[in-house]
Amino acid sequence: MINTKRFTEEQVKRYSRHIILPQVGGKGQKKLLEAKMLLVGAGGLGSPAAMYLAAAGVGKLGIVDFDRVDLSNLQRQILHGQSDVGRRKTVSAAETLCEINPDVELVLHEDRLTSDNIMDIIHEYDIVVDGCDNFPTRYLVNDACVLAGKANVHGSIFLFEGQISVFLPGQGCYRCLFPEPPPPGAVPSCQEAGVLGVLPGIVGTIQAAEAIKLVLEIGISLNGHLMLFDALDMSFQKVKLRRNPSCAICGDSPTIKELIDYEEFCSLLAVPREC
Amino acid sequence: MAEIARVDAELDLKGEICPYTFVKSKLELEELELGQVLRVVVNHRPAVENVPRSMKNEGQEVLGVEQVNDTDWEIIIRKAV
Ligand SMILES: [Zn+2]
């Protein structure tokens, strides 16, 4: 047999329900084991996304988060538990993920993402799963993904509503949809805004599903679409997106040539921030 | 099984139960070329029905299923997809 990379006995059992799927098989599972994904945020969206991606056997999972676990996070950030309060989210996340699947190589990035470090960090990954909860990071991640040619699996939540999309290099980006972040003060900060705890569970899980589909090259991607979810109506709505030729970062003559660190909205508040 | 000219790979799955009988057969078949033939031996009775059925569902060709002794069955599969 010319089979260089055999599954171990444990892997055959662990991934058997994937391997049985005609659309996955051993070949697909091997693609997952070789995939490299970066999770931006180990919070509400990042929790379910990371847990399912780890369980699926994604080979290398990077986690960016500089924050510590706060009691108010536990209502939705299921990577973390009571005894993690006060600990670094990256460390707490790593423990949970390692328990789910020790097969996964975890890389912890404990710095705040900035225009100075983001290109170096995303360089080593194929797919970025953006689970951040603030506009400055979202635009930074978007622009860096465009410049580095990385797939960006976007998710965002507010109150009872969520948005999910996939931005592939050369096929549009978050700025095509929303050219600029809202001015500071125009939207409630992450500290002020409420969120239904289960909402990021749904949205983050959809992000994980889209990231896995990208790796497996199966199904219809949310690329070119924005999924709008409303937990109150329990409705999903898919709207078409087009690359905007005059987009400042991915358009035909981009005006943004350097990454921008937008003002941190939450830092306008004189309270410890979580985003 | 006289009509089967040659078997390209063999897999002894005695002691394995479902779904691993199929999972391991599928993984082995993935390593073969189209048209090549895999012989699987099982002694888990449900696998005698389950493995051929799952293989057919995936579009593979099941050439034969036969009891070879008191406890063991062989399943012959040709890779078709
Ligand atoms: Zn764009």
Strand order within the widest beta sheet of chain A: 3-2-1-4-5-6-7-8
Number of E-type strands of chain B: 4
Global morphology of chain A: globular
pLDDT < 50 runs, ≥5 residues of chain B: none
Looking at CATH, the homologous superfamily of chain B is TusA-like domain
Q: How large is the radius of gyration of chain B?
A: 11 Å
Radius of gyration of chain A: 18 Å
How does this model look, in words?
- The complex is a heterodimer of chains A (275) and B (81).
- Chain A is 30% helix and 17% strand.
- Chain A is α/β, with parallel strands linked by helices and 275 residues long.
- Chain A has a single domain (9-265), classed as Rossmann fold.
- Mean pLDDT of chain A is 92; it is low at 266-275.
- Chain B has 2 helices and 4 strands.
- The A-B interface holds A 1-3, 7, 12-13, 16, 19-20, 22, 25-27 and B 9, 19-20, 22-24, 26-28, 30-31, 54, 57-58.
Keywords:
heterodimer, A: 275 residues, eight-stranded mixed beta sheet, B: 81 residues, alpha+beta, Translation Initiation Factor IF3, four-stranded mixed beta sheet, 2 helices, 4 strands
Topology:
The complex is a heterodimer of chains A (275) and B (81).
Chain A: H1 9-14, H2 16-19, H3 25-34, E1 36-40, H4 46-55, E2 60-64, H5 89-100, E3 105-109, H6 118-122, E4 127-130, H7 135-148, E5 151-158, E6 161-167, H8 174-177, H9 199-216, E7 225-230, E8 235-240
Parallel strand pairs in A: 1-2, 1-4, 2-3, 4-5
Antiparallel strand pairs in A: 5-6, 6-7, 7-8
Helix pairs in contact in A: 4-5, 4-9
Chain B: E1 9-12, H1 20-30, E2 37-42, H2 45-57, E3 61-67, E4 73-78
Parallel strand pairs in B: 1-2
Antiparallel strand pairs in B: 2-4, 3-4
Helix pairs in contact in B: 1-2
The structure holds zinc ion.
